[in-house]
Amino acid sequence: MALSRPIFWLFVTLLAVIGVCTHAEAGSVSGRAVSQEGKPVPNAVIVAVPTNGGITPAKPGTRAVMIQEGKQFMPFVLAVQAGTIVDFPNHDSFRHQVYSFSTAKTFELKLYGSSEVGSVQFDKPGAVPVGCNIHDNMLAYVFVAPGPHFVTTGAEGAASLQGLAAGAYTVSAWHPDQRGAAPGQEVNVTAEGTVEVKLELHLRNARGQRRPGAFDEKAY
Length: 220
Prior knowledge:
By secondary structure, the chain is mainly beta. It folds into 2 domains: 27-56 and 154-213, Immunoglobulin-like (Sandwich), CATH 2.60.40.1120; 58-146, Cupredoxins -  blue copper proteins (Immunoglobulin-like, Sandwich), CATH 2.60.40.420. It is 9% helix and 42% strand. It has 1 helix and 17 strands. It has one helix at 5-24; strands at 26-35, 45-50, 63-65, 67-68, 73-74, 77-81, 84-89, 98-101, 106-108, 117-122, 126-132, 139-145, 150-152, 158-165, 167-174, 185-189, 194-201. Strands 6-12-11-8-9 form a 5-stranded mixed beta sheet, with no helix packed on it. A 4-stranded antiparallel beta sheet has the order 13-2-15-16, with no helix packed on it. A 3-stranded mixed beta sheet has the order 14-1-17. The protein is globular.
């Protein structure tokens, strides 16, 4: 049944008001990760967790991608929400065997070749180092956040978490090179407000992917 014109416009107005109110209730956290020397830390994951709980897993079917190309994983750090399925497509002309022995997720994909994809669901929060049984130089990390509020820092060590409901949060940062768990900061996010946080990480020597070996591995 078609709506009369006055009722139709009332309906449209109500939708607009609801949209404005929803937007007005969203705040943000602007974070910056730095080393103990005060230098910016790229590839750090900043996470905000509500202090009152209420964390839900990722929606069924949520997926992310970490590719293998040139005997390297990309990206080096992939942040996902618990419950996410990560696809590991092989873009090389030779085979890879992706695995991890971490506490957060232990898995080992079968040896698979070019244009094939292996997939793993990451259902437990934590850091998951990922390697290849064939190419020892390959190393990457899947960081599994407990909830939906996370972001990876750029070259200047900065990143912003948008769309947070007003309330109290614990904000923390993680990086593959950090020494021990970094303490979180308690913040109060207000509607339409932005909270700025500086997160210091104590880092050891960098652990990254090494350059591929000189020998021919195409037979794998």
